[in-house]
What we know:
Elements: H1 4-16, H2 19-26, H3 30-44, E1 49-52, E2 55-58, H4 60-83, E3 93-99, H5 101-106, H6 108-118, E4 122-128, H7 131-139, E5 145-148, E6 158-172, E7 182-183, H8 185-188, E8 192-196, H9 201-212, E9 218-223, H10 226-234, E10 240-243, H11 244-247, E11 253-258, E12 263-271, H12 279-291, H13 303-309
Amino acid sequence: MLNLYQLHIFQTVAQQGSFSRAAEQLYLTQPAVSQHIQTLETNLGVQLFKRGRRGIKLTSSGKILTDYAQCLLRLAEETREAVTRVDELDLPQQVKIGASPGIGIYLLPNWIRSFHHRYPSLSVTMKTAVTPLIIEAILNDEIKIGIIEGELADEPVQWAPLWDEEIAIVVSAAHAWHEKEIVTINDLAGQYFVVREKGSLTRAWEERVFKENGIAAQIIAEFDSPAAIKQAVASGLGIALLPCFAVGSDYNLHTLRLSTGPLGRTLKLVWGENSLDSQAVQAFISHLSNEFPHLPLQTLDDAAELELLRRPQNFRLDNPTTPTCL
């Protein structure tokens, strides 16, 4: 059975003439692209690319597949537009979304605004909460989809990665580090940290970062939202770990990296077993896929693809569609 997502990857490789360039365009790692092509070749029983020192070339079978892949992908896009066309649906239609606090404050409002501009007959209800409560709300059918920062274990939900967001070390503009770009682990000794509240997965992640890097963090305050943490840092209360999308271009704050390399977390789109039955939800995910073209909406109901999506992948931190602060 042909997998439309793998056909999209194949078409991108064929157009770019390179696995590495295709990986950059798709926001995937090169091994992930190679694995998808290898699986497609195995399913078809043919070799699609000739690999040599000077790069790759299409085989005869590969050239034939490019024409069919183009037709199939165009038909899939037309199908998606047809099933997400909401101008003929009974009104009112509502999309119920959940999000982690930072995403709900800094990202979703703009996405909802552009979504409403495209689908003015639809409304959106948004719930912000920590990841476990978002998962619980999906399972209880209180919301249909969620966008989260938290890590997932064995929760009975399906998910797809959106991007890897870099987490910055944030200080006030008046801090002694305001002209630095990089600090070491030893520099962090003696600093007061402003952190998320206990019980949140972000707090668990912060504590894991402290432990893995040997940081004896002195916690001076706990808050339940990134906005409150930003204000506390800007006032000079302490330093914090915040996602770049939450920092933005705030002139009261300054961002730094660890000398050992950037910190990051994967933002995820999560949904329940029956979430995609709603055409309104399909319309929102289709709209979201315009900003994140690697999101394989057309194969979200494919069990094999879902299993691949559930595996963590290393997406590029320099995704041009996402905010940056470093």
